[in-house]
Amino acid sequence: MRLHHPTAVRGHPSRWTAALGVAVLMASLAACSSGPKGTVINLYGGASGTGFDKILADCNKAAAGRYTIVGNLLPSDADGQRDQFVRRLAAHDDGMDLLGMDVTWTAEFAEAGWIRELTADQKAQATKDTLQPPIDTATWKDKLYGIPRTTNVQLLWYRKSLVPTPPKTFDEMITMAQQLKSQGKPYEIGLTAAQYEGYVVNINNLVTGYGGTLVNEDSTAPTIDDKTVQALTMMRKLATSGVTSSSLSNAQEPEVFADLQAGRSAFALNWPYVLSAMREANPDLVGDLGFAPYPSIDGGPPRVTLGGMNYAISKYSKHPDEAFEAGMCMRNEKNALSAALDGGDVPALATVFDTPEFIKAYPMKDVMLAELKNAVPRPVSPVYQNISTIVSTTLSPPGEINPQKSADELRDAIQAAIEGKGILP
User: Fold this and answer.
1) Fold of 155-292
2) Average pLDDT of the chain, as a whole number
3) Model confidence at 33: pLDDT above 60
4) Spatial CA neighbour of 383 closest among 336, 341, 330, 423
5) What pLDDT, on the 0 to 100 scale, is given for residue 338?
C-alpha cells in the first residue's frame, strides 16, 4: 500500500509527511555543521516520519559518540525512492549505509547483490520478539536481508451512526452503501484505485480473497486463473456500483481519508493510521468512527496484503556493523512505540502490542493482529516493480475492467516480465 513514506505499502499518506522531512533534514544538517561525533551512518528512507527526529536523537545519544545517524531525504513516493536507490546502488555508491526499504524490494535488491545478508548473530537479534509476517518480507531464498521495522494491514473503517453492524463481505458492504444512498445519507465506499501501488494492494486483496495468487511460490510463472477473473469481476462491480467516489480512479490514501473526514464516506478501506490522523483532523468524528476486519468474500477471516518497512544494510557501506546497530536501535521497543504513537507506524515487534500506551492508542490492535496472522505478501519477485506496474496499468480504470480479457492480458504481461521481456521502468 507505499505506503509515510510511500503511501500504500507502508500505510501513510506520503503527502502529509513530506513537509515534515524538512525539519528532519535541517536537524541532520545542523548535526553535520556542528561536526557529527564518530562515524556518520547515512540513513535513507523513513527519515521524514512524524516524530522521527526524536528517535534519531535517542539513538545518537545511545551511540555515545561511536557514530551519528544522519537522516537523508528521499522523494515522497515509493517509486521515486526506489529509483534513487537503484541508481545509486547500481553505481556502488558508498554514501548510503542504512536503507529504509519497502517490503516489496527485498527480492530485487538481494538478487542484485545490493544489500547484505544478516549474519547468524544479527538474524537472531533482528527476529527476536518479532512478528513472523514482517520477518517473511525481509527474507529472500531463506536468507534474511533486513531488520523488520514496521508492518501494516488495511482495516474496514466505518461510521457507526450510519452502519450499526459492519459488513463482513464485499457484497454486504455494497448493499449497505446502496441502501444508505437511497435514503439520502452519506454512503460512499472509499478505496484506493488510482494507477499506483495502492491499487495493486487492493487487487491483491481480492485475488487472495478468492484463494488465488498472481505468481507461483518461486516467482517463475504467473498463476492467473478463474480466481483472478472472479477478483476482477468484484473490483469492476465495486467501481460500477454507484457507491464509490466519482474520482475513484484517481484516489490514493489522502483522498480516501479526506472523503471519510468530510463525511462523504460511510466506509473506507484504509490503514491503521486513520484513527490517529482523524484525532487531529476531525476530533468530532472520532466518536462515530468504527473499525472492523477488512471485508472478505465469504465472511471468513480476510487474507489482506502486508505493508511495512525493513532496514537493510547497503553492500557498499563502509560501516556495516554500525549501520546494523543503528537500525536495531531505531526499531527497539522504546522507539517502535514512539513511532507508533507519533507517526502511526505499526511495529514489527510483537512486544509493543502489549504495552499500555499502545493498547490505548490502538483500540483496533486485536483486529490488526488477527489480520496479520493470515496476511499475505505481494508477489515476491526480483521483478516485482514490473509486475506492479503491469497490474496497475492493465486494470486501470477499474470501471472498465473486462474480467476475462484483463486476466488474459495480465497473464501474458507478467510472463513477459518474468522472462525479462518488455522490462518497464
Assistant:
1) D-Maltodextrin-Binding Protein; domain 2 (3.40.190)
2) 90
3) no
4) 423
5) 96
Query: 295: which residues sit within 8 A by CB, 6+ positions away?
Result: 156, 167, 168, 169, 170, 172, 173, 269, 302
C-alpha cell at 170: 464485499
The pLDDT, as a whole number, for residue 10 is 44
The CA distance from 416 to 423, in Å, is 8
**Integer Cα distance of 235 and 403 in angstroms:** 9
Q: Is residue 11 a contact partner of residue 152, using CB atoms and an 8 Å limit?
A: yes
For the chain, give every domain's residue range: 7-152+306-374, 155-292
From CA 187, how far away is CA 47, in angstroms rounded? 37
CATH superfamily of this structure's domain 7-152+306-374: Periplasmic binding protein-like II (3.40.190.10)
**What's the pTM?**
0.88
Kindly give, in sequence order, each residue whose CB lies less than 8 Å from that of residue 79, ignoring residues fewer than 6 positions away. 2, 6, 196, 197, 385
Q: How confident is the model at residue 35 (pLDDT cuts 50, 70, 90)?
A: low
Residue 20: pLDDT band (50, 70, 90) is very low
Cβ atoms of 10 and 307 closer than 8 Å: yes
pLDDT, one tens digit per residue, over 129-143 is 999 999 999 999 999
Q: Which residues contact 212 (CB under 8 A, 6 or more apart)?
A: 223, 225, 227, 228, 230, 231
Residue partners of 174: CB distance under 8 A and separation at least 6: 189, 237, 238, 241, 243
Are 7-152+306-374 and 155-292 in the same CATH fold? Answer: yes
For CA atoms 162, 306, 20, 331, the dihedral sign is positive
- Which of 76-80, 127-131, 180-184, 216-220 has the least mean pLDDT? 76-80
Q: What are phi and psi of 67, to 5 degrees?
A: -160, 165
